[in-house]
Write a structure and sequence with these properties.
This protein is of the alpha/beta class. The chain contains eight helices and ten strands.
Length: 244
Amino acid sequence: MLEICCGSFEDAVHAYRGGAKRVELNSALHLGGLTPTAACLDLVKAETDLKVICMVRPRGAGFCYTSMQIRQMFAEAEELLEHGCDGLAFGFLTCEGKIDEENTGRMTRLIHSYGKEAVYHRAFDCVKDPYLAAETLIGLGVDRILTSGLEEKAQDGIPVLKELVRRFQDRIEILAGSGVNASNARHIMEETGVVQVHSSCRCWVKDPTTRGEKVSYGFGAEPNGEAYDGVKEEFVRMLVELGI
């Protein structure tokens, strides 16, 4: 299974045209991905037959949330579930870098009450003990873990990914993500045993209005200081043609 990380309706359409079957739908990918709007989900569902996993994340930075942020997350989760998403990606951690069992369990139960998939996202890569964390998530009923093997890129996390698959593949799905592309996806899968990969298939699109005479709204590193990131249909197709 190939999952494409999308930051907009347009991204999802490009992923669909490239041959993808599942997407993770976000907003603000430059912050690591935040909750998309219900309107964005509606558009994707109306114009594609993609399986859509929606991100639930209220802000950038880490995953130890305040009580008000948690209230927002559950409200957004319910709205997206009501609008027909196929699952939600989320992650709650304690300030000590452990799985927040109370809120993870609550979110998983909410998702399952709609018959949808509960995906624990790359908050997993900030835990202290990945194997204990995986056992905890299994116990809470989570369906899938998105992880780079606790490294910046999945290519570097191959040893941990391999061990996660060896220990847990019959009890929870392992989805390898971060830095996955057509040049390394097959290698990562063969080395680790994962059967699902997550890729952004990113390109940069210039917007000449990003900078004014004295202000800038850019977020990309040069030479992409006047551009925004998006999914490139051709990159998706290259992965699909590998048989993923």
